[in-house]
């Protein structure tokens, strides 16, 4: 097939000349600007500078939030807070308040926790409250019942007795393993936990005293340096901590606020002496459930 080779018309030539003139004019203007700027010591050519410093996430405003992307961390404007507090702070506050009320006895075992009432009382929304309840469930302080909501954990008399007897057996095994052959393990963690209990008792902080109490018994079993033993022991302690706190609270009323800490200091001193018989004797009358008669007789 033949190819037709037609000459451009006069109109096409005229348009091409005008477009070429405009392009040349633009190019000349850019070149002239570049020459003048260079002559004055200011080169307008973009240059690749040093890399930007990393974002310090610790100093970001509370009114922005970050998102991990394929290119790094993106900072997006917009409130990531509720009532002036970050979501994590609201969860922590709810956990702290509920934990304190449970361990102080203000919320009794078996008592229902109604979301609507708690959100109104704490002045928060449902999302942080539900997360707080989930965390308290992991700590053994509340339990989620299918189609019945959430309540403070309640154990049967048999469960309480079995868990305490299991705790006793595991602790005896731990100290026998730790002190055999005259070994003298460090009691620094035991003493730190005892001092925490003493300070909390003096200040009337039931939640802090419960934390020190838990830390003491974990440190006691930790003396054995036996990972599987500790993994077995921790869930037992988690289930018992509400009743351990109840025993301490009633002991403070019946005897003195410092009596619970004194019992644990005596046990710590026995461990520190390295006398296994003295430790086992102290464990034998440690009084872990002396004041739980109402629950154990139920």
TrEMBL record:
UniProt-annotated stretches for the region Disordered: 1-55
Segments forming domain HTH gntR-type: 88-155
GO molecular function: DNA binding; DNA-binding transcription factor activity
Name this protein carries in UniProt: GntR family transcriptional regulator
Extent of Low complexity compositional bias: 21-30
Alphabetic keyword roster: DNA-binding, Transcription, Transcription regulation
SUPFAM superfamilies in alphabetical order: GntR ligand-binding domain-like (SSF48008), Winged helix' DNA-binding domain (SSF46785)
């Amino acid at each position: 097939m033949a190819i037709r080779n037609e000459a451009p018309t006069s109109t096409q030539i005229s348009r091409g000349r005008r477009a070429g003139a405009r392009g040349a004019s633009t190019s000349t203007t850019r070149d002239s600007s570049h020459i003048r700027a260079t002559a004055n010591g200011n080169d307008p050519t973009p240059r690749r500078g040093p890399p930007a410093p990393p974002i310090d996430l610790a100093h970001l405003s509370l009114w922005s939030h970050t998102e991990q992307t394929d290119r790094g961390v993106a900072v997006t404007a917009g409130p990531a807070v509720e009532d002036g507090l970050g979501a994590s702070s609201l969860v922590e506050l709810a956990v702290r308040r509920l934990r304190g009320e449970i361990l102080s006895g203000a919320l009794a075992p078996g008592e229902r926790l109604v979301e609507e009432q708690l959100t109104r009382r704490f002045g928060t929304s449902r999302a942080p409250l539900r997360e707080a309840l989930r965390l308290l469930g992991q700590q053994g302080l509340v339990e989620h019942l299918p189609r019945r909501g959430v309540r403070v954990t309640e154990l049967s008399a048999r469960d309480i007795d079995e868990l305490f007897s299991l705790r006793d057996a595991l602790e005896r095994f731990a100290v026998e393993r730790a002190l055999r052959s005259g070994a003298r393990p460090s009691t620094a963690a035991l003493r730190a936990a005892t001092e925490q209990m003493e300070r909390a008792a003096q200040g009337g902080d039931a939640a802090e005293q419960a934390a020190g109490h838990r830390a003491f018994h974990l440190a006691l079993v930790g003396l054995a340096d036996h990972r599987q033993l500790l993994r077995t022991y921790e869930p037992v302690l988690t289930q018992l901590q509400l009743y351990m706190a109840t025993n301490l609270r009633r002991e403070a009323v019946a005897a003195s606020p410092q009596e619970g800490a004194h019992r644990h200091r005596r046990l710590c001193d026995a461990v520190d002496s390295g006398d296994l018989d003295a430790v086992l004797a102290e464990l034998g009358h440690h009084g872990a459930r002396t004041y739980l008669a109402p629950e154990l007789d139920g």
